[in-house]
Amino acid sequence: MTNPYTTPSASGPAPKWARKRYVLPALALALFIGVGIGADGGDTANDAKPAAAKPTPTVTVTATATETAEPEPAETVTATETVKVTRTVTAQAKADTGSGSGSGSGDDSGSVYYANCSEARAAGAAPIHRGQPGYAPHLDRDNDGVACDS
Q1: Fewer Cβ neighbours under 10 Å: the N or C end of the chain?
Q2: Nearest to 134 by CA among 89, 86, 85, 87
Q3: What is the pLDDT of residues 85-118, one digit of tens each?
Q4: pTM of this structure
């Protein structure tokens, strides 16, 4: 059974225009490649020279510059050191008369008392270490055992 909606073909093989679908693009590609090869932009006048031309000497210039400079003397560095001399005077504690009051703090401060660090510095006793006469916890800000240290 055949399809009733198609018309039978009168000619057997494909028409000639169908072959042009392959031939024309192939010709265009060949033309494009030929133009690319031929358009190298080279000078054709040099192509006519013989291959066995006379060798010409080449000139090589080498310049060597040598400079001997005397070394510069090293910088002179003078180091000066400033030394500040301070004299530390230790206040002697008065002897305890044995009043028997007993502070109970364990400090051996005796009867020397400084209200503040300015007073201790004025007396020449600063810095005061724990256990020395005049040491008191209220003078030691950072509780490191050294009163009036800064």
Answers
A1: N
A2: 89
A3: 877 777 666 655 544 444 444 444 457 888 899 9
A4: 0.28
- Cis omega (within 30 of 0) for bond into 127: yes
Find the range with the poorest average confidence among 6-10, 85-89, 144-148.
6-10
Q: Encoding tokens for residue 55?
A: 């060798």
Task: Assign 108 to helix, strand or coil.
Answer: coil
Of 119, 120, 110, 122, the closest CA to residue 146 belongs to: 120
The amino acid at residue 101 is S
